[in-house]
Design goal:
The chain is an alpha/beta fold and 394 residues long. The chain has 16 helices and eleven strands. It has three domains: 148 residues, NAD(P)-binding Rossmann-like Domain (Rossmann fold), CATH 3.40.50; 158 residues, no CATH class; 71 residues, Rna Polymerase Sigma Factor, Chain: A (Orthogonal Bundle). Helices cover 46% and strands 15% of the residues. The strands form two sheets. A seven-stranded parallel β-sheet has the order 4-3-2-1-5-6-7, sandwiched between helices.
C-alpha cells in the first residue's frame, strides 16, 4: 500500500487522480489532499477518501474549512494552512508518491521539496520544471527520487523510450521527439480576428477538459511552448531535436523517432486518467477507467506544422530555452501575469504574446543556478509584465 499526496486535488488532474485511486484502493491510500480556495470540493473529497491531512493553501479560506468539517465524520482530520504546509505534506514519511498538480509557479516549492525528499514525483505541474530547470533535475538525481511525467505528451514520450529508460538521461538511439499539439480552438481562425477573442472562447478547448489558465495557454500554444522546455529537461534533448506537430484529433499523444527510421507513437482516447494510471502503476500497468480506443471511429488523423505567426508564444518558448539561464523563468512569469490579465478582460488575447516578448526583451539570460536567483527573476518578471500591461492599457 502506497501513500499518495495530491497537490492541487480539486483541479482537473487532482479529480482524475482520485478517480484512479478509487479504482485501486488496495494499492494506494490518500495521505494528504490540498486545495487553494475550493473548500467545498475539498470537503467532499475528504469525506470520500478520508486523508490524514488536508491543506488549504489560501489562509483566508482555512478557518472556513475548519468550521465546515466540525462535527462531520472527518472532524479529526489534521487541517493545515498556507504555502509552507504544502511542503510539509509533500515530504511526510507516510507519503510515497506526490501528484504535483498545482497550476503555475505556486507549485514550484512543494514539488521541489518532494524531489529533495526522494519521493516518486508524478509531475503535472510543468511550470515547476520550466522555472527551476537543472536545479529540479539535480534534486531528483541527488535524492534518488523517481520522476514520472503526467502531461499526456511527456508521458507518451516516456512510454516510447527504450526499456529501462529514466528521466533526465539521453536515449542515444532517439534522434528526435515529435511533440503533438491539438492546435487549440483558434487553429483555423483568421489571424486578423484573434484580437476580438473573448476569455470564454479561449477556455473552450475542443478536446481536453482543463482549467482556465491551461486552456488559455493551449489557445496561444504557450502550453506547448512550456512542454517543449519541459521535454528538453526531462529527456535531455536539444530544442532543435524537438518538433512540435499539430494533430487536432489528439489521438497520438507524442512520438519518438529513432536512428533506425522507426517512429514509435503512443495513442489513446484524450483522457488524463491514462497517463495518471500509467505513472501510478509504473513499471506495471493497471486499469484507468478510460474507454478503449475505437480506431474505426477515428477514421483519419491529420498533422500540420505550427504557424509561428499565429502562435508567437511557441516561438518565444523556443527562444527562451535556447537563451537559457533565467529566460524560461521570465517567460513563464510574464505569461502567468498576462493570462490573468486577459481572463480579467484587462488586455486582448493577442496582447498576451506582446507582454511576454516585451518582458523578455528587458532581461539578460543571467545564471539560474540557485533557487534564490530563480525566485528573484520570477518576481522581477511579474513586476515588469504588470508594468507593460499598464502601458498597453493606458
Amino acid at each position: 500500500m502506497k501513500g499518495i499526496c495530491i497537490l492541487g486535488a480539486t483541479g482537473s488532474i487532482g479529480v482524475s487522480t482520485l478517480d484512479v485511486v478509487a479504482r485501486h484502493s488496495d494499492q494506494y491510500r490518500v495521505v494528504a489532499l490540498t486545495a487553494n480556495g475550493n473548500i467545498e470540493a475539498l470537503y467532499q473529497q475528504c469525506l470520500v477518501h478520508k486523508p490524514d491531512y488536508a491543506v488549504v493553501a489560501n489562509p483566508a479560506n482555512a478557518d472556513a474549512f475548519k468550521a465546515k468539517i466540525a462535527g462531520s465524520p472527518i472532524a479529526d482530520m489534521t487541517v493545515l494552512a498556507g504555502a509552507e504546509a504544502l511542503e510539509t505534506v509533500a515530504t511526510l514519511d507516510s507519503v510515497d508518491a506526490v501528484m504535483a498538480a498545482i497550476v503555475g509557479a505556486a507549485g514550484l516549492l512543494p514539488t521541489l521539496a518532494a524531489a529533495k525528499a526522494g519521493k516518486t514525483v508524478l509531475l503535472a505541474n510543468k511550470e515547476a520544471l520550466v522555472m527551476s530547470g537543472q536545479i529540479f533535475m539535480q534534486a531528483i538525481a541527488d535524492s534518488g527520487a523517481t520522476l514520472l511525467p503526467i502531461d499526456s505528451e511527456h508521458n507518451a514520450i516516456f512510454q516510447c523510450m527504450p526499456a529501462g529508460y529514466a528521466t533526465g538521461h539521453t536515449a542515444k538511439q532517439a534522434r528526435r521527439i515529435l511533440l503533438t499539439a491539438s492546435g487549440g480552438p483558434f487553429r483555423q481562425t483568421p489571424i486578423a480576428d484573434l484580437d476580438a477573442v473573448t476569455p470564454e472562447q479561449a477556455v473552450a478547448h475542443p478536446k481536453w477538459d482543463m482549467g482556465r489558465k491551461i486552456s488559455v495557454d493551449s489557445a496561444t500554444m504557450m502550453n506547448k511552448g512550456l512542454e517543449l522546455i519541459e521535454a528538453c529537461l526531462l529527456f535531455n534533448m536539444d530544442p532543435d531535436a524537438i518538433q512540435v506537430v499539430i494533430h487536432p484529433q489528439s489521438i497520438i499523444h507524442s512520438m519518438v523517432d529513432y536512428v533506425d527510421g522507426s517512429v514509435l507513437a503512443q495513442m489513446g482516447n484524450p483522457d488524463m486518467r491514462t497517463p495518471i494510471a500509467y505513472a501510478m502503476a509504473w513499471p506495471e500497468r493497471f486499469d484507468s477507467g478510460v474507454a478503449p480506443l475505437n480506431i474505426f471511429e477515428v477514421k483519419h488523423m491529420d498533422f500540420e506544422q505550427p504557424d509561428l505567426n499565429r502562435f508567437p508564444c511557441l516561438r518565444l518558448a523556443y527562444e527562451a530555452i535556447k537563451a537559457g539561464g533565467i529566460m524560461p523563468t521570465v517567460l513563464n512569469a510574464a505569461n502567468e501575469v498576462a493570462v490573468d490579465a486577459f481572463l480579467n478582460e484587462r488586455i486582448k488575447f493577442t496582447d498576451i504574446a506582446k507582454v511576454i516578448e516585451r518582458g523578455m526583451a528587458r532581461f539578460q539570460a543571467d545564471s539560474a543556478d540557485s533557487l534564490e536567483l530563480i525566485l528573484r527573476a520570477d518576481s522581477q518578471a511579474r513586476q515588469v509584465a504588470n508594468d507593460i500591461i499598464a502601458e498597453l492599457t493606458a
